[in-house]
Structures are given as C-alpha cells and as structure tokens.
Design a protein that fits this description.
alpha/beta, 27% helix, two-stranded antiparallel ribbon, 7-stranded mixed β-sheet
C-alpha cells in the first residue's frame, strides 16, 4: 500500500490509522515476540513524524524526538487505547543510523526487548542492523517533492 502525505500532521494521522490496523492484527493474530516496525528512508522523509503519530495515537503526551544520539527511547503506554485493552506496555523507538551491525544493537538488550510481545518497537534505519533485526513489517519513506512524502507499507509476515 502506498500513501502520500503533505505535512507532519497528515503523517501523524496516517500513523494513527496504522495503529488502529495494527491493533486489529494483534487481536486476530497475537505475536510470539515484540511487534517490530522498520522505518526506512532518507533523512527528513518522515520517520520520526510517523513515530510521533504512533505515540499520540496511543495517548502519550510525552514529547517524542528522534533518538539519534541516545539510540533508544522507551515510553510506557496506557493500559487502554481506543476504548480497549492495549496489548502493548511499551513503545520503544530506536534509531540505528549510527550503529554498525547487529552486535551494537545487542548491547541495547535487543534479545530481551524483541522477545517481549508487550513491546512495540519502531526502529529507524533497520538496514543498519539487518543481521540482528527481523522486522514484522517495513514502512518505506521517500520524498516526492519538497512537501510531499510517500509512505509504502511492506508486510513481512503478512
């Protein structure tokens, strides 16, 4: 599926729709481990704006910024979302841009966080750690023009 966005607020709205779809998928087919979403694309293509939208959709009021320099940020999620029980307890936002392979993500406790089905992990630049990370699905972000972004969903596990 390909979606276009012309603003950060529209990207955040697309992220809210993604969360609704994700919650339906999880309800119908629970995962054995964390639900890992790879966010691929150039700098400034909308990956962090999308993550902000996911956080807002879950009801987080925290300020969500790119974890470029700290690599990982963990947010506790509310027990309910959209009037139902939230299957996720944590939203984990990782920026792997500065990582050089899977060994470096292992230092973040990757094995433990990726095995926990109550974790929703959004990882920017998953291709940097592809030897250790196998996303449940990938979103591709790209520039169409100065204001328009394209978001393409590739479902890895269907």
């Amino acid at each position: 599926m390909i979606i276009q966005s012309i603003s950060d607020s529209q990207t955040e709205s697309i992220a809210a729709d993604f969360v609704l779809s994700l919650l339906k998928k999880i309800k119908e087919n629970p995962t054995k481990g964390a639900y890992v979403v790879g966010l691929q694309g150039e700098l400034g293509a909308g990956k962090t704006a999308f993550t902000k939208g996911v956080a807002r959709a879950f009801g987080l009021s925290d300020t969500v910024t790119s974890p470029t320099f700290v690599i990982e940020k963990i947010y506790s999620l509310p027990e309910t979302v959209f009037g139902a029980v939230n299957p996720f307890k944590k939203l984990i936002h990782i920026d792997a841009y500065r990582l050089d392979g899977g060994v470096e993500i292992e230092h973040l406790g990757w094995k433990e966080i990726s095995e926990d089905p109550t974790n929703l992990i959004l990882i920017e630049w998953p291709e940097q750690v592809k030897d250790a990370v196998s996303p449940t699905e990938i979103l591709l972000f790209s520039f169409v023009d100065d204001v328009t972004r394209k978001i393409e969903l590739e479902d890895y596990r269907g």
